[in-house]
Batch of 3 targets.
Target 1
Amino acid sequence: MKKLFPIALSVLLAGCITSPKLPDASLYLEVEPESPPAEIRGYWTGAMGPYISTIQFSESGRGKLCSAYAHGSSVTGIKYAGGKVYTVFFGAADVTLNQNLLTVKPDDEIYPAYEFFSDTELVEAADYCKEQLAEG
């Protein structure tokens, strides 16, 4: 009986753990960007886990996602289409605006919803992102 308990526990725990699904970069490449609604164009800053992240939506439907944390900083392209943002970082995500709060909810359930606030002047953006996004 003592030997069965660790085996049963490991089987039970294995069923609760899911491996993260890697985003499919081909989805990002296939999406044709659309002009986002005027009210979400511009800069939005919020937290994505330990990262301070800023999203930039342009009229063309293309933009950037910049994230900074300690020595791990990055900028990646985004596309907006059909009420979603697409990136190779987390795949596709629903974008909703409620007053001054932009919510980005990735389709993959291993990621939480992320909240961003309008940051037109990049006041709240990480220094790295201020530099990267100011370059255009």
Target 2
Amino acid sequence: MCRALLHWEVLREDGRLPLDGTLDLRTDEDLAPHFYLVRLAPAVAASPVEYCGSVLGDLCEHDPHGRPAGAALPVGVSERMVDFFHSAARYRQVLADSGSFISRRGDILYRNIVMPLQDADGAVVSIAGAFSYRIET
């Protein structure tokens, strides 16, 4: 999580948000499984999941790629994640979250970081994130 945030911070120029397309953790062997990218739509729940690493993907009921975030992300945490996407975009801030939910795999304890990305005109157009979890025994 901290490494993902460090990548995001390094890409900031003069305190502005990193440009969309500049933060791509898919090539980082350690971070790629935790990385996800959501392309924002006017209705945030309808925003398509552009990329979803295996860590978050393993908790999803179906392959999330290209599907609306509100329907693709894990049941039990999808509404909360969509709320965080909306808030990160609106306030142009990184947000971190941790919590728990029940999935078909058991009680999940998770950590999530949500990082907004902007286009050349300064509009927040996507959300990059990193997600980790463990199953509570």
Target 3
Amino acid sequence: MKGKIRGVFLLIFAILSSTAHACRPSGLEYAIQFEKNSSSLSSETAEKLANWFLYARDNLQATEINIFSTSYKSKPELNKISEERMANIERLFRTMNSQGTPIYKNTNETSSVSNTLNVVMIEVQPGCAKNNTCCPFK
């Protein structure tokens, strides 16, 4: 009996979870995996990133762009690489940012070295969030 109740609960949770996320536009986030100790964007990565930016600009009417990088507290050389990575991404975006969408760079300092040091996350705030139209049937 407990198994059936648990199954029903999980089914209801799954249905509610899927409807809660149905209104969220896709393509709000983009992750870039950099080579260790490198701040360079390969031409392939730059092209994919540019296409994502154009999608976010034109289809999501991005009102804000946030670039997130992680740095290591006690390694200044890694902090410099983190800043250079964000600057390179921002430079690419500025060439296509005809609407003047604000671009913010954010650094998260950590005390433990991990794979996240080589990943830069980018997210956009869609225009629909500004005027509360992302979920028209809510």
